[in-house]
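From the pipeline queue, job 12 of 40. The input is one protein chain; the requested action is below.

Action: predict structure.
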Amino acid sequence: MADGLYIGLISGTSADGIDAALVRCGDRHEVLHARTLPYTPELRVRLLAAAHAESLSIDAFGLLDVAVGQAFGQA
């Protein structure tokens, strides 16, 4: 990995939000800033419903994927 600043994003199984970290990589790695950006209540409900559904239509999956992608973009 090249020296520099990197942003990492992840969302866990609790679907509470997106964890973001700004990290400096080099001889020594250092977390410069980290925070959790909560999902909107509506998106969290959709994520949890999808996780517990026996099946999900391709259209519903696509719409959820776009919503999560937009939340990651905002994060």
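Job complete. The first helix runs from residue 41 to 52.
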